[in-house]
Amino acid sequence: MSEHVTNVETQPIPGQKPGTSGLRKKTPVFMQHHYLENFIQSIFDATGGAQGKTYVLGGDGRYFNDRAVQVILRMMAANGARRVIVGQGGLLSTPAASHLIRLNRADGGIILSASHNPGGPDEDFGVKFNIANGGPAPESVTEAIWRASQQITRYRILETHDVDLSSPGRRQLAQMEIDVVDPVADYAALMESLFDFNAIRAMIAGGFRLRFDAMCAVTGPYAVEILENRLGAPRGTVVNRLPLPDFGGLHPDPNPVWAKPLMDELFGANAPDFGAASDGDGDRNMILGRGIYVSPSDSLAVIAANAHLAPGYAKGLAGVARSMPTSQAVDRVAAKLGIDCYETPTGWKFFGNLMDAGRVNLCGEESFGTGSDHIREKDGLWAVLMWLNILAARRESVADILAAHWREFGRNYYSRHDFEGLETQAAETMLADLRDRLARLPGQEIEGMRIAAADDFAYRDPVDGSVTEHQGLRIRFADGARIVMRLSGTGTSGATLRLYLERFVPGPDRLAEDTQEMLAPVVRAAHALAQIEAHLGRSTPDVVT
Ligand code: G16
């Protein structure tokens, strides 16, 4: 078959606006005529073209990943890209892709994933564009892509056969070099450079038992290589290890609701010492100990307090950052360490500038994301290895480490309540109504708590000065409790209200209470202040994490 470039006439398709993390739509939407092609061409058009550039390409293996990779390769070649590093079989976890961009000094990367959203012919698909630092494109770039998608008149594609991605090696597509790489090797080597694999291996050899649930998503091969092959965990430690296009019908979201079998195992008889899960594309993590769940906010705080135990962080931390809705537990650790703590909007992209500027090297979000400046994405297996390194160094259980942490710093009881599948208009009206009343709230008392401050969070990036507004409504109480409300930016249908609830207990008493019971007055205050039931017709959340 002869290869030739075709300029295909097209028209703008409405709605190609990237959200919190790339463009996410139902798979049939992405499979529509021109849909993927328009968006990919818009990425090139918005970023100065692909001519002469090097890209990383891969995805989490969900349905349509294989076809989309072939289309994108042909479009990269037609647009004049010089070289593409692509994961074998079209697979790359998001953290591995971020690492490969940095390692190869690529100009950017395209990652195919809708993260923790289910996959399959009727579920979700997504495309993320990462920039040369390895991180998600900042808002200035995603806005430019969106504008390009509204003006597009043609896309360029090479008419040719599929590229063989079944084994590592060099391929050629027109003038473009394609390096098919083992998706795991470079990433595993990076992990080995950061953590004390000998100590973890010795702990496991000494009888420490762990379980990792890959949720039939992309981390399976990574976890098998690192946990079983390199660290010596018995075969079978990693469950749901085979990546499947529909994630085996599971919802690849590592939280107590969707990873319930893992929860049951860790809370059951003869539970292992440690349990963890990751999501569709491998950037999220959930950490469990025997009989205990570590909230992502607490995980961030514990890691901040103990990171120096891992060789890659032995010099101590430069600073930490958390998304605004994440609990303030890490702030207390930062204060004690005498390092800066930044509060950013939801979305990993907001950490990139801070890391590039050397201001922070540990970041985290309540949405099961934790990571450091070793790459520019959150990193599920990194968090697991950090915990294993801390456990190996301290020789205490997860529960004991948490209890000691709370005794030292106090405990930020924390939970997120999600109300899913809402009518977008009703959800927006509810928030607009509350926003209008925010200025009058300070000084008022509700549920025996005095409101100290209330605002609509806006962020001024301290590095580039850019301002991002309307990032969530915050109501802070004099006793340290806090309510935050915002709409999710990662859904593909209707609206999801995220209600974030926090209450601080300094200790030494009441450090081991039930989280939902402790938060009950804060929940009641939130429902009353926002009039949730009146606006949404709902009084109970769909998902509680
Ligand atoms: C994405 C972003 C995260 C963000 C999360 C939640 O996660 O990468 O930074 O915290 O969405 O977003 P929202 O509350 O708007 O749904 P992922 O794992 O989906 O890429």
Please explain how this structure is put together.
Helix content is 33%, strand content 26%. The protein is of the alpha/beta class and 545 residues long. The chain has three domains: 4-181, 3-Layer(aba) Sandwich (Alpha-D-Glucose-1,6-Bisphosphate, Chain A, domain 3), CATH 3.40.120.10; 187-409, Alpha-D-Glucose-1,6-Bisphosphate, Chain A, domain 3 (3-Layer(aba) Sandwich); 411-544, Alpha-D-phosphohexomutase, C-terminal domain (TATA-Binding Protein, 2-Layer Sandwich), CATH 3.30.310. The strands form six sheets. It has a seven-stranded mixed β-sheet with strand order 2-6-5-3-4-9-8, sandwiched between helices. Strands 20-21-24-25-26-19-27 form a seven-stranded antiparallel β-sheet. A hairpin with a 2-residue loop joins strand 13 (285-289) and strand 14. The chain is globular and about 75 Å long. The model has no long low-confidence stretch (mean pLDDT 96). Bound molecules: 1,6-di-O-phosphono-alpha-D-glucopyranose (G16). Residues 1-10 have a biased composition (Polar residues). Keywords: Carbohydrate metabolism, Glucose metabolism, Isomerase, Magnesium, Metal-binding, Phosphoprotein. Belongs to the phosphohexose mutase family.
